[in-house]
Design a protein that fits this description.
Elements lengths: L4 H12 L6 E5 L4 H15 L3 E5 L1 H17 L6 H18 L7 E2 L4 E5 L4 E5 L16 H4 L2 E2 L7 H11 L19 H9 L4 E5 L4 E5 L21 E6 L4 E5 L6 E12 L7 E6 L7 E8 L2 E11 L6 E6 L2 E8 L1
Parallel strand pairs: 1-2, 3-6, 7-10
Antiparallel strand pairs: 4-5, 5-16, 7-8, 9-10, 11-14, 11-16, 12-13, 12-15, 13-14, 15-16
Helix pairs in contact: 1-2, 3-4
Length: about 325
């Protein structure tokens, strides 16, 4: 239980179904205290046991440090994907084993459907809230012990049901993109990575200005580059030389083929495979082909995609089913 509306409602739904439910809060970051109190109040309302796991040390090591190290390498990481694998469905469940649970439930908006040989992950009924994009690192072992009670629900209906249940009236906000960043991401990076000035060049090698650190920029960015005469778009980074490359030519941001690492499939598949793919959360899926060559995995789009960014997740679907994904190189 995160202290949010969705995880609280998930616990309530499971109790209504007759399951014995224990609410567990993960203490992950300094700002967790307020959320912890919200989760505790919801558990009290539902009349279920409530526990707290202090995972701040492990979360900092596995997720926050990973996030910062990827930025140092010039990438734009997606920490939520690896938090689901490493913390929520990994370390958390291992620590919960002392309770001898049958399942672990979360407030994710996603569906699970059991087949004869495996469990499939499908998009949520509420497509505006669908969170399958963040679940591509999971395995069948983890899926067999998972429950997603919110998958068949619409968020607006969930809010109405919560009010009828008498949930404490908090100013429920939607989940932050990066839960451990309070305030502006730029301020968080200045505190943890400092500044590291370097040259800004155009695609022809002309010096245009000076940047404050490559981690403050992402591919496709237009605002905040720091000089006039534009618009300029960030089209690349030379990390070893600490150079930011920009261009007025937006067409340079488009490409059709990318290479992937850390590829994971939620069930058995055969390559090559036609899929619908997303290269960022909230993006509309587009037709593509996943194939292997020389023991490397590639994703080739039917149409060129804008601002493909290293470190982000490319996630694969067929119809409503989440098949897997990989990290963009």
């Amino acid at each position: 239980m995160s202290g949010g509306l969705d995880s609280g409602m998930a616990a309530g739904i499971l109790k209504e179904r007759g399951l014995a439910v224990t609410g567990i809060f993960m203490r992950l970051a300094p700002q967790s205290r307020a959320a912890e109190e919200k989760a505790r109040k919801i558990a009290k309302l539902l009349k279920i046991p409530f526990l707290v796991f202090d995972l701040r040390k492990e979360f900092k090591k596995k997720i926050i440090n990973y996030f910062l190290e990827e930025l140092r390498k010039g990438n734009t990481p997606n920490p939520c994907v690896f938090c689901n694998e490493e913390i929520k469905f990994g370390l958390f469940f291992e620590k919960a084993k002392k309770l001898k649970p049958d399942f672990m439930a979360t407030g994710h908006y996603a569906k699970l459907r059991k087949r004869r040989r495996d469990i499939r992950v499908l998009k949520a009924e509420d497509r505006t809230k669908d969170q399958t994009y963040f679940l591509w690192r999971l395995s069948q072992k983890e899926l067999k012990r998972a429950l997603f009670p919110m998958g068949d629900l619409i968020k607006e209906d969930v809010k109405k049901k919560a009010l009828k249940k008498g949930f404490p009236i908090f100013p429920y906000s939607e989940s932050q993109e990066i839960c451990f960043v309070l305030g502006k991401t730029e301020d968080f990076l200045k505190k943890n990575l400092k500044t590291k000035k370097g040259k800004i060049l155009d695609e022809k090698g002309k010096i245009l200005g000076e940047h404050q650190g490559l981690w403050f920029y992402t591919i496709g960015q237009r605002k905040g580059i720091g000089f006039g005469g534009g618009p300029y778009y960030v089209i690349g980074k030379e990390v070893k030389k600490n150079i930011l490359i920009v261009s007025k030519n937006e067409k340079l941001l488009f490409q059709k083929e990318i290479r992937l690492k850390k590829v994971n499939w939620l069930r058995e598949i055969k390559l090559p495979l036609k899929v619908k793919a997303r290269i960022r959360y909230g993006q509309k899926e587009t037709l593509a082909r996943v194939y292997a060559k020389n023991n490397k995995t590639f994703l080739e789009f039917e149409k060129p995609q804008r601002a493909i960014t290293s470190g982000q997740s490319a996630v694969f679907y067929q119809k409503d089913e989440l098949l897997g994904g990989g990290v963009i190189i």
